[in-house]
Amino acid sequence: MGKKFLAALIVGTATAAALLHSGSAWAKETVRVRVAEYSTKTGPFFQGLAEKFNAANPDIEVKIEHLPWPEMQQQLVSDISAGTAPDISHMATRWMAGFAKDGALAPIEGLMSPGFADTFVPTYLDLQKQGDHTWGLPIAASVRGLFYNKKLLEQAGIAKPPATWDEAFEAAKKIDALGDGVYGIGVQGRDLDTEGYWFYSLWTHGGAILGPDGKSGFASPEAVTATNNYLRMIKANVTQPGVTGSSREDLQNLFAAGKMGMVLSGPWFNAQLAEQGKDVEYGISRIPVATTEATYGVTDTIAVLESSKVKPQAMKFLEFIFNKENRLEFGKLEGFVPVLKAESTEPFFTENPKMSVFLEMGSMAKFAPLFPRWEEMADGLKTELSRIYSGEVSAEEGLKQAAAKMDAILAEEE
Amino acid sequence: MPGIEKTAPRRAASAGRSSKLGLPGPAFALILIAPCLLLSVAVIGYPIFDVIRMSLFDVSRTGVVREFAGLANFAKAFADPVFLQAARQTVIWTVCVVGGTLLVSVPIALILNEDFYGRTIARTIVLLPWAISLAMTAVVWRYVVNGDFGTLNMTLAALGLPFENYPWLADARMAFLIEILIGILVSVPFTVTILLGGLTSIPESLYEASAIDGAASTKSFYYITLPLLWPFMQIALVLNVIYVFNSFPIIWIMTNGGPANRTDILITYVYKQAFAFGKLGNAAAGSMVMFAILLVFALVYLFLTKSQGARNDD
Predict the structure, then answer these.
(1) Are the CB atoms for A237 and A243 separated by under 8 Å?
(2) Which positions carry the signal peptide feature in this UniProt record (chain A) (predicted)?
(3) What is this model's ipTM?
(4) Which domains does chain B have, with CATH numbers?
(5) N or C: which end of chain B has fewer CB within 10 A?
């Protein structure tokens, strides 16, 4: 009896062990996916995709975590260092270079199915490449345009949206003169994308972030002219008061309240205006030009982490996210420009004047460089822009400081 | 207070009895608290150890500790003008918030110590800011001081003052001043609570005696209230310094350290270094500097409370 029992026990244990061991054949592989929220709809959208994907792939279970943007960077850094990072993570493309350099990301060119890379608009996928590797996929792309309040322009006697910066300045003066707490044009001076707002002017004046000598272009003559372009508007009081205290949201709120004639922003602003600015009749035109047509292009990246043990499964889910049907749904939901070639011809983008202008400008988009320490360089620039806009230092002086800081970081990196 | 007089001797008596019974003293006590002590060391000690380690090594942005760097991280921090600027601003921030808090709290505590109709309601109102999270307070104030949509400007404009769209947070000095005022507002409840405790401990008989001797109320304030309240003010001062010195949410939410780093304090500087720039080594070095400063204040606090206890034992 005792022996039998022992034998049974041994067999039982062995079977259990064998089951556990070969468990991977039946058990699901879990893929943890972390996305950042562009809006309250982002989380549920990806949740829905995961459910569909899980139903079609019984051997994989995708779990979605969604976080607000401001928490993403800190959470990702903490999780990677603690070894608890997800398998797939969303991030700003400008953080990607740093993570890739530190070996936190997995190169995906070997994981992608043949032909998958060719479905992307090359500009946006190229931005995800560094060295000889592709470090992620462009989950969102945007370019910027000039939002103008049709009614205010009409009241100020302006027939069509300004095409040049000089015209924009004149228009801003006329709109601001309408009084009643209305401002001509918005200039951003704090928080996320302050440097981006400056790039609009920099690039359209023929400037560049990196000069031909491989050094900072922040203090080039074009950059100084570009800065003075905003300064003349600030000095003439045709911007909102307190530029150094205004974030992107502050400007957008003013425009949505019908208190601002013109503001430079991206396609996501359409969504905000649809909810909060129903009374504002607006149009979108290209960024005003001085010498060169340009706009600021930004992408966000979704990447597979090096620590992931289920990289092929993770890639399979990524390819699912990036099929035409799902991307189109996402684009319509959040208002981003198409990153897939197949999306670009959809009527939603081509026939809607509030989207088509962004599509047109896609070809002239310029991007921030992918330096691992770009955040620091941009922060140095932001600080100096603050000092310049508040009149504390001249454009030449402030930009020289910002360029010096960028060059010092570039030199340290080499 | 009869309650205190009654319990104190009983405690002494029971302590005496247990030692007579021959129970092991300090060693046994140590064994009893050992689990707690170990847990504390693990929970408090490990992060400190890790920060020290990171401050002395080259650390990648994902926390991978690379080669030993000696004091290079500290040297980099002290060579960064923004770090020094943040350090200066931390001193201004701490001195102004703590000093202002004490200046405001003493009169409030004196008033709340008086017996008047509705005192309980007044006390509750003073304590209210304590009940709201710091982050929420900061968010609300950011809206209040918003130039175009804020209620502050709306109120001022309604009073006929020229503040229709004054941008309060655009000017660094004004922004810092507002943050300091909010810092004071949220530090008052805690300070008033400590001072009220101090005031109730001053025996009424002292005032009666001085009144019989013909002392004016200002005199009894200077010669009775202030000296007897002083130890409590010291403790409120030191604890507030520790809290305010690395108070993060108000500044982070209202100005993010800007414009042009003018409202950055060490804690916001360290946060940016770590999570925006990925320079964990520099951030750890900055944290160590803060830790050293706070350690001094913690020791001062220990010393104060200890001498306080000793005085009470006399």
Answers:
(1) no
(2) 1-27
(3) 0.84
(4) 80-278 (1.10.3720.10)
(5) C
